[in-house]
Write a structure and sequence with these properties.
Largest sheet: 6 strands, mixed
Oligomer: single chain
Strand content: 5-15%
Shape: globular
Structural class: alpha+beta
Strand order of the largest sheet: 31-30-27-28-29-32
């Protein structure tokens, strides 16, 4: 019956329009959080009502008062209460009635409560907190305001002075913004009205005025999107793709969800006013953050080793440098939520040159004195609901918003502490420790649980106790932490810094946008403080030590799943933990005593309601009852989740992993996703949706049917729907998921992606043999062999079956990296870079003595004859020559595996708008719905004739090139391509011919403009076909140019607007400083000609005074991509510098990706990584060697030399006399650099 009601309301909604509200009894709930009493319903039973809400794009207005609206009026345990009545409104209605409020009024005479909707309730609007607005960065006046404030002297300590300056900045910026009246919504409305009035008044005689107003309107829309993007805080989606509606819906939804409208008092009754909310919350957290004053830590500290050495303490407490402070500042996301002072990280990043002196001085002062001002460490707590309809403070998660200034200090300490964690944190904790991953615990726990569930024989049963700690962060005792740090050997100065960070904190609470309450804590750490996860790890070491002592004293047994394997008793991750031991009363009693001892010392408290135990199959019923009794009557379960993944995987894999499908559906089928632009949809599928799947796919192999179902969900989201009706899918999802260079859109093929992620985990087992997970898997499945010789035996866990299924893929991609060649077999191993399978294809000659690659590298002259006899193929000879020249003195290792790597060719290297790129890729894959592509059997619209000219069938080529309207449009297009008309019959040929224009001046820019022009042509075609909107030919090209110019300007201004990146003045000063520090400078570049399959390298060596020393033009075989050629150019330059006996060298390149990769480095073993490793090894030959990225206009000479090299057969060098053109280009480079001085 209720489904018929929902269908009726859906049909009526189409008549009512966009601004609507539905209120009444919907006779259903959206989750078990809206039900009290009775049995819990399965999650799938809520899907119909959720679907009704999503399909009609409705928002729940929320409510004030009692959380339920219906009761069965029973007494005692049989009472059931539910929220069946509610008010649902569209986003447009909520925009008009922003303050609308629903109140639940209890009625004794009925089983339903009254629900009262007030569209304009009397609400006193609170004073808004200050937030630094990113839109202000576009105004030059802001920098002047900051400079003025920071130029004035303040009195007090360093911390007080900087707090006062920030406060003065807030006041001055607020006053300035009020004068600016930066309300983009009102501005949009005003400009639209002005355009309408101008047209009415002047008709067609006001084109210039209307053009100017449209430009203002476009700018106002940009401001509106930036405003809502900042408030939505959607990190995966950037502004600029016209997703304002989506950002707006996210913000409104979050505000309604986070708004506290009802709160149950601790002593009973309900809070009814904002003031009561503040008092109740402050009272609750004052009790929670008050220390129990523990004093006896001897038992828990006994056995903790002293792991921090004197050298480690010197590293921890060394003087703080400006570089460390800068790294901490720029490592934060610019638009992270600000603390009580309202300043987000973008303020510190954008105005770093102005404020850095005071910031550095204050932070260095803290680390010198150990004193931290309370004003700096003030914290604003925001309560985030854990469930849909929270009414109790236990239903909220407190998130601390710390001031950015404090976060800088915290991040510096974290960066210093991280390298030492492997020395002092036990193997039971796998997160936040370098080289450990959360998936390590998932794999090991799954193996132990599989062993537990499979154990059917034996006298002694085993059990796993699943712990949940209540308010784990909030209950941490500071004195306990200090005791742990002292026992481990941390320096007193480091402990004093920690004490200042903890004891100087004070809390206030953000209640519905108003700052209320005050708490001065004596225990607890903050969720939101970068230091907190690391402090909690040390707190857990106390529990780990107690369990280890109990195992040593044979009070508990721990678990060994194989004889040679480790004995494990604890796996810990914050509040999600497992303890393994024997299933008997004595060990259960000892476990309870350990938890009580740990709780008294650390302040931690076990949540009894969530405590559960899982027994092995051979545990008797009497032992189970005894264990449950000793542990306080906890519940026994047979299944559960650990770190978000199932503990046990049975026969029905689809039912176990159904939660993955549900999670994906909840994310992409929400109606807010319909508000995304096509570019936004693409980003959501590639980042958010894929991230949801990758976590489970990294350890479990999903079935083909489930992967197909997940791909279907993504395809339906991509193609969209109109009012519940599915749109036509013009291409198979497999084709869309193809690589971009093959014409696809680059979405994931889930089966391949799953296999690649599993192979990555196997690779980690191979390369990190000392990890706990590696030891467990090896001892259990391949104790006497390597992993490639292992097999899947009967009874193996699903994780091992999943990992083993990826071995074939991994083995096919592994090559030996040749170091000194001492462990690489010439004939058996894969080591040749240019060979298809990596092995030598020539047969081993009879009597040939050489077996190791090291013998080929050493003594090249001595092995030359036998080498020619052995290797018959030129490619393999070139591989040997490569090794002879560029061999590195390092140990051999296996090669790396590239996971779903896509080489970004053609379009991937360009910067056109995302819509333009997507359109061109759709054209290349015939994804556009031209008339000839429509199937009458599917669309009933199969007329193939072009609707505009009516002369020819509308193919892709006709729609874009040959239609008479398009011929005229191309005639007015300002970019011309030679001899391209002859390829108009085939878009593929046309596009490939245009790619040849990359080598001409501004070639990439012209291709970008042309891609946007194609997009505008297609939009104009759709406008005529569907709306009879005819665009003039010159308007199409004009629109394409205007959009490209707008996009180009936005790209160039992006760093400034977002406040990210290094300031231009800072980079210039760095370059000038580097040039003064090095005696020799080398400019490098690489060039390629795709048509001729040739490449070249250009190098120019100069003294630091600008005098040319030598230049080289070196032809190269075209066998690599552009990035590798740039790396080869730098490596060649280093080799030439060694030949010239240079001692201090600065390498300059205009390829930022390559320079960053060389500077940052990495662990990869791909061909590109090997080249980078060569560069690092060669750079050690110099007393000083640095790398730096410069702009193209500073590197024109080497660029010209690289283009010249493409046409050469042999290397060309100029040493003393140089051609006129070369002197001219070198002089221009010098002038470009000299402008920085």
């Amino acid at each position: 019956m209720r489904k018929k009601q929902w269908d009726f309301l859906t049909n009526m909604s189409k008549i009512w329009g966009k601004k609507k509200v539905l209120i009444g009894d919907f006779n259903d709930i959206i989750s078990n959080d809206e039900k009290w009493g009775g049995r819990l319903r399965p999650n799938w039973t809520f899907s119909d009502f959720k679907g009704f809400i999503n399909n009609n794009e409705l928002l729940d207005i929320g409510f004030v008062g009692l959380p339920w609206t219906w009761s069965n009026l029973w007494e005692g345990d049989g009472e059931i209460k539910q929220r069946l009545d509610r008010a649902l409104a569209s986003a447009e209605w909520c925009e008009v009635f922003k303050d609308a409020r629903v109140t639940h009024i209890e009625v004794e005479a009925s089983d339903h409560n009254i629900i009262l909707l007030e569209t304009e309730p009397r609400i006193r609007k609170p004073k808004r907190r200050f937030h630094f607005d990113s839109r202000w960065l576009q105004y030059r006046e802001v920098e002047g305001i900051i400079q003025e404030v920071w130029g004035k002297n303040q009195v007090g300590s360093r911390g007080v002075r900087i707090s006062r300056k920030i406060k003065q900045c807030k006041m001055n910026l607020s006053a300035w913004s009020r004068m600016l009246k930066l309300n983009s919504k009102k501005e949009i409305k005003r400009i639209k009205e002005e355009i309408h009035a101008t047209r009415t008044r002047n008709g067609n005689n006001a084109k210039e005025t209307i053009k100017m107003l449209r430009k203002q309107l476009s700018e106002a829309y940009k401001q509106e999107e930036l405003y809502w993007n900042q408030r939505a805080r959607i990190n995966w989606l950037q502004s600029g793709d016209k997703n304002t509606s989506y950002f707006h819906a996210v913000v409104n939804g979050r505000r309604k969800r986070n708004r506290i409208t009802r709160l149950e008092k601790e002593q009973g009754g309900w809070c009814t006013t904002e003031e009561e909310f503040g008092e109740e919350i402050a009272h609750f957290y004052n009790q929670l953050f008050t220390s129990s004053k523990p004093s006896d830590f001897d038992e828990i500290l006994n056995g903790i080793p002293r792991t921090i050495t004197e050298q480690m303490n010197l590293q921890l407490t060394r003087p703080i440098t400006e570089k460390e402070i800068r790294i901490a500042v720029f490592s934060m996301h610019p638009n992270k939520s600000p603390g009580p002072d309202g300043m987000s990280p973008v303020f510190f990043q954008r105005f770093w040159n102005i404020i850095k002196v005071d910031v550095v001085d204050t932070i260095q002062g803290f680390f010198h004195t150990g004193f931290l001002s309370k004003a700096i460490n003030e914290t604003l707590v925001t309560l985030i609901p854990k469930i849909d309809n929270p009414f109790n403070l236990a239903h909220f998660r407190p998130i601390s918003l710390c001031n950015v200034f404090y976060k800088i200090i915290s991040k510096i300490m974290v960066n210093r502490l991280k390298p030492l964690l492997n020395s002092c944190i036990s193997y039971s904790q796998a997160t936040f420790v370098p080289n450990r991953q959360i998936l390590d615990n998932v794999i090991v726990v799954h193996e132990y649980m599989h062993w537990l569930k499979s154990k059917r024989k034996g006298k002694e049963g085993y059990m796993a106790i699943k712990l949940d700690l209540s308010k784990a962060y909030d209950r941490v005792e500071w004195k306990f932490l200090y005791a742990i740090f002292c026992k481990m050997g941390f320096a007193p100065l480091w402990i004093r810094w920690m004490h200042s960070c903890l004891s100087s904190v004070s809390y206030s609470f953000n209640i519905n946008g108003v700052k209320r309450g005050y708490v001065n804590p004596s225990r607890g750490i903050r969720q939101g403080d970068p230091l907190s996860p690391y402090l909690f790890m040390f707190c857990v070491e106390g529990l780990s030590n107690l369990l280890n002592n109990a195992v040593s004293n044979k009070q508990i047994s721990g678990v060994k799943i194989v004889r040679q394997g480790p004995n494990v008793s604890l796996f810990f991750f914050v509040d999600d933990s497992l303890i393994f031991c024997k299933a008997n009363g004595d060990e259960a009693r000892h476990i309870k005593e350990i938890l009580e001892c740990y709780g008294k010392a650390s302040g931690q408290q076990v949540n009894i309601n969530k405590l559960a135990v899982i027994f092995s199959k051979n545990t008797g019923s009497r032992e189970k009852e005894e264990v449950l009794q000793k542990l306080g009557g906890i519940q026994q379960v047979t299944q559960g989740k650990y770190l978000g993944l199932p503990l046990v995987v049975g026969r029905s894999k689809n039912s176990v992993f159904r939660f993955i499908r549900d999670n994906l559906m909840s994310r992409i089928q929400n109606w807010k996703g319909k508000l995304l632009s096509n570019a936004g949809k693409e980003v959501l599928l590639k980042s958010v949706a894929t991230a949801l799947l990758s976590y489970a796919m990294s350890v479990f192999r999903l079935s083909k049917s489930l992967c197909k179902e997940l791909s279907g969900l993504m395809a339906r989201f991509w193609w969209g729907n109109d009012q519940g009706e599915k749109r036509m899918h013009w291409k198979k999802w497999n084709d869309i998921a193809d690589r971009k260079e093959n014409g696809g859109l680059g979405f994931r093929d889930l089966l391949c992606f799953n296999e690649a992620l599993l192979a990555k985990q196997v690779w980690r087992l191979i390369t990190c043999p000392n990890l706990l997970v590696s030891k467990v898997m090896k001892n259990r499945y391949f104790p006497n062999s390597n992993i490639f010789q292992s097999k899947v035996k009967a009874g193996a866990s699903w994780i091992w079956q999943s990992l083993h299924s990826s071995l074939e893929l991994l083995e096919s991609g592994i090559w030996k990296q040749v170091g000194d060649g001492s462990t690489v077999e010439i004939w058996e191993d894969r080591w040749l870079d240019n060979s298809k399978n990596g092995r030598v294809s020539s047969l081993k000659p009879n009597g040939y003595q050489l077996t190791k690659v090291s013998s080929l590298i050493k003594g090249r002259n001595g092995t030359k004859t036998s080498f020619k006899d052995c290797f018959q193929r030129n490619r393999q000879r070139r591989s040997w020559l490569f090794l002879s020249v560029y061999s590195k003195r390092m140990t051999d290792s296996n090669g790396d595996i590239q996971i779903m790597a896509a080489i970004l060719l053609n379009l991937g290297m360009l910067r056109p708008k995302r819509d333009s790129k997507r359109a061109v890729r759709r054209i290349r894959r015939m994804l556009i719905p031209a008339q000839t592509r429509k199937d009458p059997r599917r669309t009933s619209k199969g007329d193939p004739i072009c609707k505009y000219c009516g002369e020819e069938p509308e193919t892709t080529e006709h729609a874009l090139f040959r239609c008479k309207s398009r011929v005229l449009a191309w005639a007015t297009f300002p970019v011309s391509w030679d001899d391209i008309e002859e390829h108009n019959w085939n878009f593929w040929k046309w596009w490939e011919h245009m790619q040849g224009g990359r080598s001409r001046e501004d070639g990439n820019k012209h291709i970008e403009i042309t891609a946007n022009f194609l997009w505008q042509i297609w939009k104009a075609r759709n406008g005529w076909n569907f709306n009879q909107d005819l665009k003039e030919d010159d308007q199409i090209s004009k629109k394409a140019m205007e959009e490209w110019i707008e996009f180009d300007e936005a790209g160039r201004n992006a760093e400034v607007t977002n406040g990210t990146g290094r300031q231009p003045d800072d980079r210039q000063s760095m370059l000038v400083g580097l040039m003064e520090q090095h005696s020799s400078i080398m400019y490098t570049d690489a060039g390629m000609n795709q048509a001729r399959k040739k490449a070249g390298v250009g190098i120019i060596a100069k003294a630091n005074n600008g005098r040319i020393l030598t230049t080289w033009s070196i032809p190269q075989p075209r066998g690599r991509d552009a990035t590798e050629m740039e790396v080869i150019a730098i490596r060649t330059a280093l080799s030439k510098a060694i030949e010239k006996d240079m001692t201090s060298l600065l390498i300059l390149s205009d390829c930022k990706a390559v320079v960053d990769r060389i500077i940052i480095g990495g662990q990869g073993l791909t061909s590109l990584d090997m080249l980078v490793e060569d560069i690092k090894q060669l750079s050690l030959s110099f007393w000083k060697c640095s790398f730096f990225h410069i702009r193209r206009e500073m590197n024109l000479c080497s660029h010209r030399l690289a283009k010249l090299a493409i046409n050469l057969l042999h290397e060309t060098r100029w040493k003393q006399s140089f051609p006129v053109w070369l002197n001219k280009e070198a002089h221009n480079d010098f002038l470009a650099v000299a402008s920085l001085l």
